[in-house]
Amino acid sequence: MLLILAMLTAAAPDYSQHVATQRKKYGAAIADLAVVVEPPFVVWGDAGDRQVQQSAEQTVRWAVKHLEAEFFARQPAAIYDIFLFRDATSYQAHAKAMWNESPGTPYGYASSEHRALVMNIATGGGTLVHELVHPYFAANFPAVPTWLNEGLASLFEQSDERDGKMIGRTNWRLAGLNEGLKNRQVLPFAKLVATTDATFRDDDEAVHYAQARYLMLYLQEQQLLRPFIRRVLEQQRTDPTGGTALRQTLGEEGWKRLDAAFCKWVPTLKFP
Ligand SMILES: [Zn+2]
User: How far is the CA of 165 from the centre of ligand 1 (A)?
Assistant: First the structure.
């Protein structure tokens, strides 16, 4: 009986119950937030009802539709909350009041512990699309390596549609990547895919983010991004770093050729 109940709950989450539970749990810390249900997410925010509604119905709905149709078969296993704060002060204050946390980034972050995406929406809708990728990886590749998780998430910080499909475009991370190439901070790809969460987030973190992001763009521009993600998800048990899937996707192009081609390609990109 319990099992049946649990299965029913999983099949049809009760969003109004979830909203009531969160209202009770966070109390005064979220009393100022408007809320909009946009399955499988619940969107909260303090920039006014209209802004919250717009973010939910435009950005979240659009990204969910494309992420599910083009990349990820499985939805996040339970409801995730998205908290959109109107500026840096509100973002910091709410993170403190809700979880006693001080965000390590000015944009936003995904917390699997709280099943929440938390962000300063003043930094733009791109942050929201970036963070939305994380619960999808968590549901479809629980042990996803950081380089892959952040690479795809960062790709969609600047997103658009081409032939009905979601694509990433060049963005502000390009300047740092060109700088990183000059200063020889860009890693051989065989090394990038072997980074742990800690080594990815070392002193060269910004370059690693940019390198992983532009690798995704490089694959996208050769129509290889979707086949790569499909392969990496299929092979996750035997290929935990994604390195084998990447090499297989590139075919003839081994690590050395990928390194050389990438270094030549990046300086041809333009932003803005
Ligand atoms: Zn991220």
Answer: 21
